[in-house]
Automatic annotation (TrEMBL):
Organism from which the protein derives: Pyxicephalus adspersus (African bullfrog)
Protein name: CRAL-TRIO domain-containing protein
Claim: Cytoplasm is one of the keywords in the record: yes
Listed Polar residues bias regions: 1-19
Keyword Coiled coil assigned: no
Length: 321
């Protein structure tokens, strides 16, 4: 019996030939089938379980025990955020090798980040069209008080075939970017205008983002300014109250125009997408036309005089008759 388990033929004339052939043969290992699904399953970030709020969900996030001084993001004890790197890449073969940040595998770029003391790999290639969703808008006040701009109009369309995979990687990218951009106190400018409903993030996704932000970042957040708030975003925040602390709710501020936003923060380094500018102009134009309509001269104001005259003639006619 040889080292690969080949059968030795008893014929002495062919034994030497069999031995030579066995040395040239390579052992072929067949990998077992691995079934990796991107469907909404238990533990998935986009599972419908996140949309169902249990009765005992009324917790204060700030009361959860987390280290006072840490540069890493902390998981909740019952956190089940899926790791994007263990998902199968849509339309590609997954590479299990260890690669540094920016190294290409199978034509894709990856970034390795540490969140909650766990290593995650972000598929930079798949989220490249959506990276403008988070930008640095400069500073306000004294010191390094950062302005973080979140443009919802750059989020992916929910009808995309790889939507779940994109959102999982974009989720990790946003959390890791926030950790890098913030040094001291900061505020978030959420540009909600010009965002169609199909691009709005789901409640479960927003909830997970909030839970993944560590205690230091939650405490240093001074204000969340929502520009052009819609009925939908107001409803989402109302539903989110059971699992969001009252301190966070008090930091939310609604702004209805870019002109109003300019009165609150310096706008020199704040990047406003062109579609948001157009949306703001249309709203301001519609508001101006509405004001003009309300202030227009009303012809009905002369009606009482005409009515009095008509009554007078009717009265005279009745007297004649």
């Amino acid at each position: 019996m040889d080292s690969f388990g080949s059968t030795i033929v008893e014929d002495t004339n062919s034994s030497s030939l069999t031995t030579r052939e066995s040395h040239h043969k390579r052992k072929t290992l067949v990998a077992p089938d691995i079934n990796i699904s991107l469907d909404q399953s238990e533990g998935s970030l986009h599972s419908d379980d996140f949309l169902d709020a249990p009765d005992d969900l009324d917790i204060n996030i700030d009361d959860i025990e987390t280290p006072d001084e840490t540069d890493s993001l902390e998981y909740l004890a019952n956190d089940d955020t899926p790791v994007a790197s263990v998902k199968k890449i849509p339309g590609h073969f997954f590479d299990d090798g260890d690669h540094e940040e920016g190294e290409a595998t199978n034509g894709r770029l990856w970034r390795t980040v540490i969140i909650g003391e766990q290593e995650h790999r972000i598929d930079l290639q798949i989220i490249k069209p959506y990276m403008k969703v988070v930008t640095h808008g400069g500073y306000y006040g004294e010191g390094l008080n950062a302005i973080i701009v979140f443009a919802a109009c750059f989020l992916p369309d929910s009808g995309s075939p790889d939507y779940h995979y994109i959102m999982e990687n974009l989720f990790l990218y946003i959390i890791s970017s926030l950790e890098l951009l913030v040094a001291e106190d900061y505020m978030i400018i959420y540009l909600n205008g010009a965002t169609p409903r199909r691009r709005m993030p789901g409640l479960g996704w927003l909830k997970k983002c909030y839970q993944m932000i560590d205690r230091r970042l939650r405490k240093n957040l001074k204000s969340l300014i929502i520009v052009h708030p819609s009925w939908f975003i107001r409803t989402v925040l109302a539903i989110s109250r059971p699992f969001i602390s009252a301190k966070f709710i008090n930091k939310i501020q609604y702004v209805h125009s870019l002109e109003e936003l300019e009165q609150i923060i310096p706008m020199e380094n704040v990047h406003i997408p062109e579609c948001v500018f157009q949306y703001d102009e249309e709203r301001m134009k519609a508001r101006s036309e509405s004001v003009q309509f309300e202030n227009r001269p009303k012809e009905t104001e002369n009606f009482p005089m005409y009515n009095a005259t008509a009554i007078k003639y009717v009265s005279l006619l009745c007297n004649v008759l």
